[in-house]
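Review box. Two proteins, two foldings.
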Amino acid sequence: MAQKVKKLPSFSLKTLFRNDAQAIMVMVGIWIIIGSLNIYSATSVDLVRQDSFFSSNIVKHIIYLTLGLFLGRGVYRLDYRRLKDEKFLNIISLVLIVLLVAVFAGVQVNGAYRWISLPFGVSIQPSEFAKLGGIIWTCKYIEDWCKRYPHVELLEKHDLYGRRFAPPFTYRPTKALWAPIAFAGLTLVEPDTGTAMLILAFPLLLMIIGKMSRTSLTQLKYLGFIGIIGFIVLIWVSDYRRDRILAWWDPWGHSLTKSFQSVQSLVAIGSGGIFGQGLGEGTAKYFYLPEAHTDFAFAVWAQETGILGALFLAIVIFLFVVYGLRVAADARDLFGKLLAIGITCLIGGQAFFNMLMVCGVLPVTGVPLPFVSYGGSSLLMNIFAVSILLSISRSNELANRQIGAQGVAPSLREETRSRFRPSAGGVK
């Protein structure tokens, strides 16, 4: 009698890890290790000039990382649905607006007001937290609107309960964009055009995903056209914005002036070759590449690890995006689904935006590379965002265990309806 041959399980992303949360933690862990090594290498030159090792950037990075992981564990244990409490959101939004206004009394760096100085040499950048705050705000009000209406409106003519607005304000911008518009406007004044665009872009993306009506999509196209014209005018009247566009358009023509940073970044990436110059052996950080540990940290990593190292980091980020979207697909409610998409796009989008910027594909902006660029506020925000994403995944897993489902658990609305649905023999 012939023996049955057991089929080996096929390899896939579903079988590689026990669950999506485990996969995300592994990807982020590798990402953080890469970032810590890169920050140490990029700031090693400054260690020689600094009087104390404990005041160095790598020590500050480790402190921020430890604090972020400690606080992030608490955020992970928290039910993500508590984030959509209206009082909580109003308080957080008000605090962020106050902080964004307070930056104008803070430290000016490179002609911009972005940081608030605190004791012990610590500073915070409120615009980093505004990215996450705007996404949470938008997700909450999109869910509230979709509970009563089939489509999300960009311009609302009535409130959530169907009461029409009185003239002269017959139409009002959707409440889902109130906080992001406020955050983006204050950030634009700092000025920080790149961050302001991201603060507003991700909420708009979530509105489109949240079944925006055809009328609102048409309105969005017109607003987008007006926004492009306004952006061109903004560039034309601002010298430093105009210089950045010119430097991006013709970097080698301004290699010693406007585009010095971009050219040195390309030189660093090209000199790395396939295998790189070796960890800690890169030369770009020796005062050739400005901001080597912040916005252009990817150039240092590419020079020291080569094309293979850069591709490895890109694969890690790509897998993070894949598993983040899987968490969104398994979410039990619209708020969790949109929040998971927003966080995944926020972290992954910033990463690829920064990498394309460093490679010269996009103009130079102040968008950091998550977990790799030095910055306490950015690191804390990204850890909080990942913790919320893990909380959503944890809720999905608990739901599957309780219900006994092998696949995606039903939504809360579907589960409630199934419990009170009449059977063939009468109501149970």
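Next protein.
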Amino acid sequence: MNQPTPNQPANRRRFLKDSSAAVVGGTLATAWATPAHAAGSDILKVGLIGCGGRGSGAAVNAMRAEPNVQLTAMADAFVDRVEHSSKVLQRQLGKQFAVTPETTFHGFDAYKQLIATDVDVVLLCTPPHFRPMQLKAAIEAGKHVFCEKPVAVDGPGLRSVAETVKKAKEKNLNLVSGLCWRYDYGVRETMKRIQDGAIGDIMAVQENYLTGTLWHRGRKPNWSEMEYQMRNWLYFTWLSGDHIVEQHIHSLDKALWLMGDKRPLKATGMGGRQMRTDDQWGHVFDHFAVCYEWENGAKTFSYTRQMSGCKNNVEDYVLGTKGRAMILRNTVQPNGSEAWKYRGAKPSMYDVEHKELFAAIRSGNTINNGEYMTDSTLMAIMGREACYTGQEITSEQMFNSKQHLAPAKYEWTNVEVPAVAQPGQTKLS
């Protein structure tokens, strides 16, 4: 039975904007092999867990990826969010929308009920806190998974995901990450040229993710503190990991990629709340600056900020011994040579993620992005804790940390409001 949940008017995370933007792009030609999923059918059944803007957008991308795919189940903590997303997706997806009242679930245990249905693929698009438990449940049930970033908010979550990734490999289950730049053709080719030595050995990387503020859904008198925090999950570290984890992970993942997907040794940094100091902003920071160091001495200088009225910049700057590059601009500039710029096909990376997932399921050529999605999340969390504590944090220390950010119970009650971290005083357990 579904747990009772508040039934409030839906709030969209720019669903219509996100989904319309995400569907722009070309198509990929794929020769499909014999289906390797539900016997007797060439239809892949997809279930969506997390019906906010990103989740609803992911469902659109998945359905666009291939015609022989149907959305058959939906789940969210909030009934209003499921209902709203269902209405919008039904209009957008047409015959590919095959969700029924019997396959629509809400409550804290909704993900378990969806996974118990006959779906072949699960889209995990809930707030990051819930991903370790939901990923574990999906893989244990033998489902292929598309898992949004990041995959955890603390050490226990990281360790859980790492074990689940191993189980997915043992079961030959596909696990595709929402770290979408890995699926961008221009970024892929730019990375290949750098890793083939076009600019020599990498000495330093500067990762900028400087943006404005995001949405806030306010507070309603009849909401419990738990509901308020979950409706505004960006602003609570136990739910989002803070924006260095929830957003800046895209930049940090590219730094990890540049370093051959090897974990950094350590991180030091600073950050705080300069503009978002009111209680409505929960307890997250509004800016971070972190230096990561690798075993070979290379460093990544990462900067992320969410402030209105400031100059924005999102780019990856790479300095090598023989040149430099900018990843998102798809340019590589060797010293003394003409700059190279990618000018090939640019299909939507959001579509490509799902195209390649479905192609792998049908062909039997398993994709498992689990190791790098875990390590990128680790990198982001250790950067957060370096700033929260004011201390040097190693990757080993963070991975083995006992810090557990989950509430005591998942109930619609007045849960604790976490304190804002104080560098020099806050400790990492």
